[in-house]
Amino acid sequence: MILKAETIWPGRGRVIQDGGIKIEEGTITEIAPFKDITRGRERVQDLGKAILLPAFINAHTHLDLSHMKGKTGKGSRFEQWLKSVAKARAMMLLESRSIRRGISEVIAGGATAVGDISVSRKSAALAYKHGLVDSVVFCEVLGFDPADAQRKLDRLRARFEDTGGKKHVRLGISPHATYSVSAELFRGCARLAKQLDLPMAIHAAESPSEVEFLATGTGKLRELLDSVGMIPKNWQPPGKRPIHYLDELGVLKRSPLLIHCYQVDESEAAVIESRGCSVAYCPRSNAFFRRPTDSLQLLLHAGVNVALGTDSLASNDSLSMLDEMRFVKQRHPELDWETVLEMATVNAAQALGIRQGGALKAGLPADIVAIKPASAPALPSQILGEGSSVMFTMRAGHRLRRPVTSRGIFAKA
């Protein structure tokens, strides 16, 4: 099969006009101007004015929260939002349907892989089933009581030993956050990740209340944790900023994926870079809470590998990576367009350890997204401007189908 399109962007610094991509057994064998592609009896798909890009990779989401779309108000206090999410998760009866809804939005938005945080691990098998085979599902663990750390670790280990016989995507470990995981549990998770050779992901430096809580043990987050009885007796705040605290625990030696990092300062950005950590940055989710701070430029200036994620539909309008890129370009017009595209492709592949993703070149899987361009004279605006849309998402030469049934987006559980 040969895909023919008006424009192809294989990666930074290269644009092919009137281009072609030859695909054999799911792998790209040639990518060049169409006139230079070796042709035999292959079927040619002429996509007209389409723009072909490497398929996007969503570095961070929570597929199981997809049923919460539109059910939380923008501008909510972070602490109030945490309570509503915890309540909704506790009452959730149709988790598989919620995950399928999320997968459908991911595919519609041009991505072939996600970094998903899961409590139950159900998304690992469902992501594989629906073609997002390069994804990573991080099994989430919470526990602020140090006396309970070993029990939590034993249960976590058992989740990796019993996979239920189903094919699934790669698994990882996600100790939730600095305000919900004890120092003992953090260290234990890092040891377990090393023993089982698993990637890690941690929510970090997400809100001002998290920074205040770690520094002084006070604030709205402290009030929330007190109200649900999560603060153990004799607990004392570490008196450090989030990234410095994680580094002191030795957790950053595993180079975990750090999620959000909106509240970091220059010293923390330097630590993130020196430890080889990537950051999953979710700009629309940050805007959902109407936070005034945004550390994106600081992280990029420090040389941190920054990948884009959507976070969940509990704090975003869609799981579309095209929407996420469009937003970050609007919010940061000073960024060049290729930097924005890289954050959703090659940077995200690096963040999730996807060795053969994020670019279009011979020898790599044919993971491709076709974009219907916006009406604009220049390529950057054609891709990221208002009006562009995803025509199809392809994984290894096959167009991914969204999980839909006659009853709509919620596939049968």
- The count of domains is 2
| The level-1 CATH class of the largest domain | Alpha Beta
Radius of gyration: 21 Å
CATH level 4 superfamily of the largest domain? Metal-dependent hydrolases
Residue share in helices? 25-40%
Largest sheet: 8 strands, mixed
- Beginning-to-end CA distance, first to last residue: 35 Å
| Tally of individual helices | 15
Q: Outline, from the CA principal axes? A: globular
CATH architectural arrangement of the largest domain: Alpha-Beta Barrel
Number-wise, the strands total: 16
* Oligomeric state of the chains present here: single chain
Strand content: 15-25%
Poorly predicted spans: 405-413
Mean pLDDT: 92
Structural class: alpha/beta
What is the third-level CATH name, the topology of the largest domain? Answer: TIM Barrel
List the helices and strands and how they pair.
Layout: E1 2-11, E2 14-24, E3 27-33, E4 44-46, E5 51-54, E6 56-61, H1 78-91, H2 95-108, E7 111-118, H3 122-129, E8 136-141, H4 149-161, E9 170-175, H5 183-196, E10 201-204, H6 208-216, H7 220-227, H8 242-249, E11 257-260, H9 266-274, E12 278-281, H10 283-288, H11 296-301, E13 305-308, H12 321-331, H13 337-343, H14 346-352, E14 368-372, H15 379-384, E15 389-395, E16 398-399
Helix pairs in contact: 2-3, 4-5, 8-9
